[in-house]
Design a protein that fits this description.
Number of helices: 2
Order of helices and strands: HEHEEEEEE
Radius of gyration: 27 Å
Distance between the termini: 56 Å
Structural class: alpha+beta
Helix content: 10-25%
Shape: elongated
Length: about 130
């Protein structure tokens, strides 16, 4: 499909391979993907990629790639933001899996800490409103 699309567009197919995909444990899958497309790996001229796969024959062996060190995780540096979230549901607080209890609207509010992931506390008390 990619080869057909490249032919329709009148362009040559190429595949950029970032450093994250150049590690030895990925090499078999990388070689298989490159082979299915009829391409051959070459050293990349770009700093952000280890290889580029082209429809040209490579002269000589592929040089051993020096992988840059992985960047440190930033998760520890992220600020934690506190939000108050209001909610509404038709599920009773004591029977949350029983959808037949949907004759009332239960509303409430809950504190949420956002640090790149959302953590919702369970069992936060709310109050019920009768339908109009």
């Amino acid at each position: 499909m990619l080869l057909e699309l490249a032919a329709q567009m009148g362009t040559r197919l190429r595949m950029w391979v970032p450093f994250a995909d150049c590690e030895p444990e990925n090499r078999d899958a990388l070689d298989a993907a490159v082979g299915m497309l009829g391409l051959e790996l070459h050293p990349s001229p770009e700093r952000w990629a280890g290889y580029v796969a082209l429809d040209q024959v490579r002269r000589g062996p592929l040089p051993v790639l020096r992988l840059p060190p992985r960047p440190a995780s930033m998760r520890e540096d992220l600020a934690v933001w506190q939000y108050e979230v209001w909610y509404g549901t038709n599920r009773a607080p004591r029977e949350p899996l029983d959808s037949s209890k949907g004759s009332r609207l239960f509303v409430g509010r809950s504190g949420v800490a956002a640090d790149g992931h959302i953590h919702l506390p369970r069992g936060t008390p709310g109050y019920a409103l009768e339908p109009a």
